[in-house]
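User: Just a sanity check before I run the rest of the batch. Below are the structure tokens for the first item. I only need the designed sequence back.
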């Protein structure tokens, strides 16, 4: 009996994946989450999950942070990225940062099943048309990803708001915490990233950005 976790904030696609899994693996257990925090909590409670199907851009997961964080915390759990983004650079970077597979949301239920089957057998999987075009991730980006992975989800949210130019007071109001808490988060961010100011931290985050953060 397999255990899956479907992590996607779009109910229709989450349900579509659920139906594919249940059709072919009727005895399986399928957990569901809608954001990165919920995904991490589920994996902490179910560390024997056989496959995580992770939406690339769900809340808390943008810029590959979700993938990088999950791979750092749960290295034994295979992760398949699911996304509407079919850009070869994005697929290459996701695979380079530890994804076991990359399943575009445009794939048919039959192809999704083929991908899941391959992943459960321990294989890596990307659509056939992309396999010859994959490129390796640079060592510089791998080092940067390792630093990004040390951030907590809340610290990562703060860093994203810094990238948008928000003030400490604005971030605190948005997150429901005090300005002093935001300052403490920023200090921790600088320490973990090895930076000394906001500009340097934002530049580091920008280097991990994908082509379009708004893609589902």
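Assistant: Here's the designed sequence for the first item:
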């Amino acid at each position: 009996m397999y255990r899956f976790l479907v992590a996607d904030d779009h109910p229709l696609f989450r349900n579509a994946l659920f139906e594919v899994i249940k059709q072919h693996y009727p005895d399986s257990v399928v957990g569901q989450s809608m954001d990165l925090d919920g995904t991490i909590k589920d994996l902490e409670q179910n560390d024997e999950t056989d496959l995580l199907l992770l939406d690339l851009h769900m809340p808390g997961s943008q810029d590959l942070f979700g993938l990088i964080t999950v791979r750092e915390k749960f290295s034994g759990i295979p992760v398949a990225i699911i996304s509407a983004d079919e850009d070869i650079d994005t697929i290459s970077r996701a695979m380079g940062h530890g994804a076991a597979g990359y399943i575009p949301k445009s794939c048919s239920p039959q192809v999704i099943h083929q991908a899941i089957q391959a992943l459960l057998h321990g294989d890596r999987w990307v659509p056939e048309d992309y396999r010859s075009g994959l490129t390796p991730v640079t060592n510089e980006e791998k080092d940067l990803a390792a630093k990004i992975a040390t951030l907590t989800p809340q610290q990562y949210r703060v860093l994203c708001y810094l990238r948008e130019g928000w003030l400490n007071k604005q971030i605190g109001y948005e997150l429901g915490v005090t300005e002093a808490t935001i300052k403490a988060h920023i200090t921790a961010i600088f320490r973990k990233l090895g930076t000394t100011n906001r500009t340097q931290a934002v530049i580091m985050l920008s280097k991990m950005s994908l082509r379009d953060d708004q893609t589902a």
